[in-house]
Amino acid sequence: MLHKWPMHLSPINNKFIYIMTLTLILIFFMMYLIIQHFITDIEGLANCNQDQHDLTYKNTATVEQQQTELNDFKKNMKARLSELQTQVKGFNTQITKNKKDVAKNATTIKSTVKDVNDAKNKKAKELDKAAGI
After folding, report:
1. Distance from the first to the final alpha carbon of the chain
2. SS3 per residue for 56-91
3. Pair 83, 75: CB distance under 8 Å
4. CA–CA separation, 119 and 128 (whole Å)
5. Least confident span in 7-11, 113-117, 126-130
6. Contact 13, 7 (CB under 8 A)
7. What is the DSSP secondary-structure string of 5-18?
8. d(Cα 13, Cα 94) in Å, to the nearest integer?
9. Taking a C-beta distance cutoff of 8 angstroms, is the pair 56, 48 a contact?
10. What φ, ψ does residue 48 adopt, rounded to 5°?
11. 13 pLDDT exceeds 80?
12. Cα(129)–Cα(133) distance, integer angstroms
């Protein structure tokens, strides 16, 4: 004897009903998530009233602008510091050269003074000889 199931209780229809129910629940939750995504406020501003959102955005923009200015200032100072370091290196090179030149000039002056003194002494001897001393 074949057992006939009523149409609404057949196993095939039951699987179809379960799948349809699961699909509808899944669609419902997906729609809920999509709606929540577009309705929710920006994170961190949910507890603020709407008038304060503009102030928060302005403050954020001000902070970002100040950070940009600070970064520009740092770059400018690094460039100027680099220029000053280059100048100091140039001055150090010039100072070393000048020290060598001063030492060389001191030697030349001593030699010249010695030559002048020798010429003076020679001339004095000639005058003494001419004077009969």
Report:
1. 172
2. HHHHHHHHHHHHHHHHHHHHHHHHHHHHHHHHHHHH
3. no
4. 14
5. 7-11
6. yes
7. PPGGG-HHHHHHHH
8. 100
9. yes
10. -85, 150
11. no
12. 6
Q: How far is CA 31 from CA 19, 20, 42, in A?
A: 18, 16, 20
Token duo for residue 20: 């349809």
Q: Any idea where the domains of the chain sit in the sequence? A: 14-38+52-131
User: Which CA distances in Å does 44 have to 25, 41, 85, 101?
Assistant: 31, 8, 47, 71
Total-model pTM: 0.40
Burial group, residue 109, by CB count within 10 angstroms (0-12, 13-18, 19+): exposed
Mean pLDDT of 81-102: 93
Structure tokens at 47: 């507890």
Apex 114 CA angle, 129 and 121, nearest 5: 10
Instruction: List the structure tokens of 54.
Output: 């503009």
Alpha carbon distances (Å) from 29 to 1, 19, 33: 45, 15, 6
Q: Which helix (H) or strand (E) holds 1?
A: none
